[in-house]
Structures are given as C-alpha cells and as structure tokens.
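Lab notebook: predicted structure, single chain.

Context: the supervisor wants predicted structures on file for every construct in the current expression panel, including those that have not yet been purified. This is the next one on the list. No modifications to the sequence; it matches the entry in the shared construct table.
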Amino acid sequence: MTYYDILGVSRTASTEDIKRAYRKLAQDFHPDKLTGIPPAVAKLAEEKFKDVQEAYEILTKHRAEYDNQLNAVAPPPPQPQARTTAPASAPSPPQPVPKNIIWFKFGKFVFERNAGTVLFVFLGVLIIVAIILGALF
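Prediction complete. Output recorded below exactly as produced.
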C-alpha cells in the first residue's frame, strides 16, 4: 500500500488534493474526536491517524524522491484516455480480494487489517471482558 493509497488520492493528484484528503482523514481519525468508542477501535483509529500523518508528511516534503522510488519498483499507471467509442459490452471481472485481509466497519470508520491483527485485538478485548466479568461475579 502506497502513501497515495493511504490518503485515497491518485499518483497524479495535486498538492491541494493531497492536502484536502489529509484534512478529511485527519478529522475523521483524530484521537480527540473519537470519544466514547471501544479502546480496541480507538487504537486502530490512532494507528490509521499516524499512517495518514506519515503519508501527508512524505508526500508534501519528499514527494519527488518518493515518486522516484515508486517508479523504480512499478511504473505509474497510464493516464486515462477520453473515450470516443462505446464501452465494451462485457464488464471486466472483479478483482480478487486478498484472503489474509479483513475489512470491518465501525460507524463511519472502515479498517483494513490482516487476520492476525484482528484476531489479536479480538482476543485482547475478550480477555479484558473476562477479567471485568470475573471481578464482578
């Protein structure tokens, strides 16, 4: 996953588009705005917030170097061409979803994590609940 993917912008996005995407994501995942949610979800949101901050910093301060590194690994995607003919009748097949990634949604937050992380967080929450219930009964 690239820093462009984290911010949800294309590699050809302008500085203003990157700034706008950063502000939106920073507002959505800022720890001060996330009161009243479970600690496990707050931890994931905090990680996402840190990822967004890192992506914005790299893309605003070191974008040319980062793009050079990306181009060395994979060339940039081709620019979209204006269609002059009717689209093909057969739609393209859907892209396969990686089997080790789990998506889950909590309110307006959508998280992508590998299965090990989700299992680790789930078991941590389960242990905390067991400790609380054990103390009550």
